[in-house]
Design brief:
With 173 residues, the chain is mainly beta. It is built from two helices and ten strands. The strands form two sheets. A six-stranded antiparallel β-sheet has the order 5-6-7-8-9-10, with no helix packed on it. The longest helix is centred in the C-terminal third of the chain and has 10 residues. The chain is globular, with a radius of gyration of 18 Å. The relative contact order is 0.14.
Length: 173
């Protein structure tokens, strides 16, 4: 069982269209978002929110490494900054295995599909408006010491799909 206490994320640089800093005090329910508007002015949004104990900001990979490959869907909560903070659900589902090799040795990784559920009215109209976030796939090597192997998905809403993987695994074509 995991519980987030605090999280602090800074997104800035040429990759991100809007510089943003998000701080979450999960126990106290305080969320702060600092961002720069299109005209260059800096703004801060402070929200007092009722945050659930299953909040996953900053610990998604740790959670994935601890989900059994034969588990059904796992739902966790996440605060996203749009830039106004809002609570969404992540639905994590095991989606099979993939073979790869490292240093000539064969391995199998479990692929997890991570889907964002927006909920409410926005959840109904987002797919129609093309605003439904893309799913993310994450491959995790199982065993006594599970490890991250690969991921494919956007780094922020509306961003391109990124593939992040370790250097050494070789995947079949």
């Amino acid at each position: 069982r995991f519980r987030l206490l605090t999280d602090h994320v800074i997104q800035r640089g040429p990759t991100f269209p809007r510089p943003m800093e998000v701080s979450i005090d999960a126990v106290g329910g305080r969320v702060s978002v600092r961002y720069r508007e299109n005209d260059g002015k800096e703004k801060t949004v402070e929200e007092q929110m009722s945050l659930p104990e299953d909040l996953a900001n900053g610990i998604v990979l740790t959670l994935l490494k601890n989900i059994a490959p034969d588990a059904g869907s796992t739902k966790v909560s996440m605060v996203v900054a749009t830039p106004k903070p809002r609570l969404v659900k992540l639905v994590i589902t095991p989606a099979g295995e993939a073979s790869f090799s490292a240093s000539g040795a064969p391995y199998k990784a479990v692929r997890f599909n991570v889907k964002v559920e927006l909920g409410g009215l926005l959840g109904l109209i987002a797919p129609v408006l093309g605003k439904q976030p893309h799913d993310t796939s994450v491959w995790v090597l199982g065993g006594e010491a599970p490890g991250f192997v690969r991921s494919e998905g956007p780094m922020y809403q509306g961003g391109p799909l990124w593939r992040i993987e370790l250097v050494s695994p070789l995947w079949p074509q």
